[in-house]
Amino acid sequence: MTHNDRYLSVEDLTARIESGAIDTVVVAFTDMQGRLQGKRLHGHYFVDEVLAHGTEGCNYLLGVDVEMNTVGGYAITSWERGYGDMEFVLDLDTLRLLTHLPATAMVQCDLTWPDHRPVAQSPRSILKAQQQRAADLGFVAVAGTELEFIVFDDTYEAAHDANYRGLTPANQYNVDYSILGTTRIEPLLRDIRNTMYAAGVNVEGAKGECNLGQHEIGFLYDDVLVSADNHAVYKTVAKEIAAQHGKSLTFMAKFNEREGSSCHIHLSLRGSGGDIVFWENDARSALYDSFVAGVLATMADFTLLYAPNINSYKRFAAGSFAPTAIAWGEDNRTCAVRLVGRGAGARMENRVPGGDVNPYLAIAAMMAGGLHGIEQRLELEPPLEGNAYASDRPRVPGTLRDARDAFHGSAIARAALGDEVVDHYTNMADVELAAFGATVTDWELRRSFERM
Fold first, then answer.
1. What pLDDT shows up at residue 51?
2. DSSP E strand boundaries for 317-390
């Protein structure tokens, strides 16, 4: 893990609690939907009891839908099993300050069963398993996530009461790369950037995007687990700070008919000693090509982990900068995979995930696919030149149902992640499909109420 002096040590945290500078510690893990869940603990209780032993929470937290309803079909949690506990195991390398909240620190957790076995279905466990797989082959993986969001001048409460219709975007026109457009909401963007920097994250900057009120804050690449941890914290912190500013923001993949919000993921491998393995003799290495070939070969198998919701698939539209073709290109933003950089900066960009992605699952899927390519010595097809939207290349699955079926039936996914993980996240898709199938939408009402 990458450390800097903005993370807290146990000694520093303890001293701040003793002095009263910190009185609250958020103990959190990331759930299936990519959300932080956990508890707020009094600082002295944390030091006296939890620091040495961890804490616990109900195992239904890895078996609920977005609305926190208990649903059937999960092997690890049910009424029949009695909804017992999972242990929250503190990762003390993740201790950080949350300066937007009074006297508050946070620590992130792994999940284990009471007998200390890892909960295999936990997103953090899934990514750590692929990290270990890479380490066994002599590699470490680094990644960066580019996460877009849309800001509204309405509060979350007002947006809810309006059924999320008729909201006022923070910008009234396309502000892609616009300095004037970002200045309009710089107080919010600056607050998020500085809060995340104080929390130990290496901030790059902010820029406007295409949709009305759409923006992106970028962070420097890091170890894949660090990047996923930071991503999860950032999504929660950004929403909390927006609320403090009397605004709201959404990471939905497709809020409206304009441009969706993406989460492009940049990833590369290094040798165990940090040496460059994706580049040699001033060109891509054979290992790099095989890694990319593996990601492409498994793109359909793992789309469910890149696009986990019904709404995710509304983003895949021709001419939208969201990919529809499973193809790669040299600095070609129409492809699902874009290769950029040279030498130490050589990396692949996966353009399939949207802002609603769970970063642990998506990065784990990329690693699983890429390592499959290395192990099988897959050959990389020639790059696509021109417009991938108009090409004859295979298509990214177009619906959650299609992605669910590809994932469920994938021998590669089962070999890489394990049957228990594949079955767990297949059930998550089934729950979403059933909920959406039972819903009468605004679209149906508008088209059918009078005219049918």
1. 96
2. 328-330, 337-340, 347-350
pLDDT at 1 over 80: no
Res. 29: pLDDT tops 60: yes
- Residue 181, Cβ density class (10 Å: 0-12 exposed, 13-18 middle, ≥19 buried): buried
What pLDDT, on the 0 to 100 scale, is given for residue 195?
Answer: 98
What are the E-state strand segments in 31-102?
Answer: 36-42, 55-58, 85-97
pTM of the model: 0.97
2 band by pLDDT with thresholds 50, 70 and 90: low
Q: Are 29 and 111 in contact (CB under 8 A)?
A: yes
Domains in the chain (CATH in brackets) are: 10-119 (3.10.20.70), 131-443 (3.30.590.10)
- Mean pLDDT confidence for 14-38: 98
* Measured CA distances, 40 to 12, 126, 199 (Å): 19, 25, 17
Name the amino acid, one letter, at 152.
F
Asked whether the beta carbons of 4 and 202 are under 8 A apart, the reply is yes
Give the DSSP letter string of 157-173.
HHHHHTTT-S--BS-SS
Residue of 129, 146, 145, 144 lying closest to 371 (CA atoms): 129
With beta carbons less than 8 A apart as the criterion, state whether 108 and 7 touch: no
For the record, the structure tokens of 218 come out as 């970028």
Supply the DSSP symbol for 229.
H
| Residue (of 132, 111, 33) closest to 417 by Cα position | 132
